[in-house]
Specification:
It is a single chain. By secondary structure, the chain is α+β, with helices and mostly antiparallel strands. The protein contains eight helices and 18 strands. The chain has helices spanning 5-8, 89-113, 138-153, 230-250, 257-293, 310-323, 353-360, 385-394; strands at residues 14-24, 30-34, 51-53, 56-64, 67-72, 82-87, 117-122, 127-131, 159-163, 183-188, 192-195, 210-218, 221-228, 300-306, 328-335, 338-345, 366-370, 374-380. The strands form four sheets. Strands 1-2-5-4-3-6 form a six-stranded antiparallel β-barrel. Helix 2 (89-113) crosses helix 3 and helix 5 packs across helix 6 (310-323). The longest helix has 37 residues, at 257-293. The mean pLDDT is 90.
Length: 395
């Protein structure tokens, strides 16, 4: 523990120490061991510190077999060399705020509703906890957030204490500790007592603020997304920028954005219905036209289209073969450098459309599939639809 100065003072950012070893791990990554360190290694849900050893950037920190390994890109340090080390304080303090905020939010869920946290993840932008429940209400989320921020605003002391296994019964622990020696408690008196090896501020007020952002069901549990401290301001700035852009696009004040969006969505649905109705009319007209063009010879109906969806052509082909049961349909669509093919046959036509597609699609570097009566596919090619149709005639 004497080596781990981040436990003695989580606010310490610099240290003069000595390189005691430099080696490669089993994966070929270089690391150094230091006489003493302020670099926190990954553990307990908290990511590792980053920073510099002399002028060498530390890219990872892990504790393995009692050693704190400071991973570096290249072995440029010397064993026995005295070095100054500096941690990235912005990163460290952010983690301190988030980790302490997680303790408070978790304890608030327990205090108000008896909801237990079963896992915790500290990500780059948000933090999540998984609650051992199947559902949660907005009222419960709001009440818990309010209680957590009350504890933060009261600027309560956050203590850390090393105890033995025999002393555990002296404290009302929120959950059982996972170790039997070197037991470290993080304590907010008269609120939360919890075993933890992470770094924390010395008072709750330094967390600043806690905001629950969303919740979701996850594998039969409830996952809560939230942010603390500086991350709340980042989230607010991001959402404010988005809101400003939306109000500008909608030409509506902030308080009128929801109403304007509802109107826009309603109009969009009406427009979509009108387009669908128009599309149905176009398909009906094309159906009449294509069948009319082929009154004398109904063995094959073929056409090359420009900028038509394969869904439209599938619908049109199906309508045709219902009426023209002896007919075969070959539709090709030219869509922004892609050729898409739809093949269909009536129930009195015995040609295998799946086999025909298997001959056509390699010609356009395409993929697809289907059945004996209906197949489709597409690919990227410089060939035109008319050129492909000529080749199909020769197959």
């Amino acid at each position: 523990m004497k080596q781990k100065l981040f436990y003695q003072d989580s606010y310490r950012q610099t240290l003069n120490t000595m390189v005691v070893d430099q080696a490669k791990d089993d994966f070929g990554r270089w690391y150094v061991l230091l006489d003493k360190t302020v670099f926190y290694p990954t553990g307990g849900g908290q990511p590792h510190d980053s920073g510099l050893i002399k002028d060498v950037r530390v890219i990872d920190v892990e504790e393995i077999g009692g050693e704190i390994r400071h991973y570096i890109a290249e072995p440029t340090l010397e064993v026995g060399e005295a070095v100054d080390i500096h941690i990235d304080w912005t990163r460290r303090f952010d983690f301190m705020q988030q980790h302490a905020g997680q303790h408070i939010l978790t304890a608030s869920f327990v205090e108000l509703f008896g909801f237990q946290t079963i896992s915790f993840h500290l990500g780059k932008e948000l933090i999540t906890i998984d609650l051992d429940i199947k559902a949660i209400s907005d009222e419960q989320l709001n009440a818990t957030e309010k209680r957590a921020n009350q504890i933060i605003m009261e600027n309560r002391l956050i203590e850390t204490k090393w105890i033995t296994k025999d002393q555990l019964s002296d404290y009302p622990l929120r959950k059982q500790v996972a170790v039997e020696e070197d037991i470290r408690l993080v304590i907010i008196p008269e609120f939360d007592y919890n075993g933890c090896g992470g770094t924390h501020p010395t008072s709750t007020g330094q967390i600043g603020l806690l905001k629950i952002l969303s919740s979701e069901k996850q594998q039969g549990k409830v996952r809560v997304h939230f942010a603390c401290g500086g991350r709340v301001l980042e989230q607010l700035n991001r959402k404010h920028k988005i809101l400003q852009e939306v109000t500008s696009l909608l030409s509506a004040p902030e308080e009128g954005v929801v109403k304007a969006m509802k109107v826009l969505m309603e109009n969009g649905k009406k427009t979509e219905k009108m387009l669908n109705d128009s599309n149905e009319l176009v398909i009906a007209y094309e159906l009449k036209e294509l069948i009319g063009e082929n009154k004398i010879e109904r063995q094959s109906i073929e056409r090359v289209f420009q900028q038509r969806s394969i869904q439209d052509l599938q619908k049109l082909a199906r309508l045709i073969v219902v009426e023209e049961t002896k007919c075969k349909v070959i539709f090709i669509a030219e869509n922004d450098g892609l050729l898409q093919v739809v093949l269909a046959r009536g129930n009195e036509n015995q040609e295998n459309m799946k086999e025909l597609a298997a001959k056509i699609l390699p010609l356009i570097n395409g993929k697809g599939g289907g059945s004996k009566s209906f197949a489709q596919g597409g690919g990227s090619t410089d060939m035109s639809g008319d050129e492909l149709l000529k080749i199909i005639h020769e197959i």
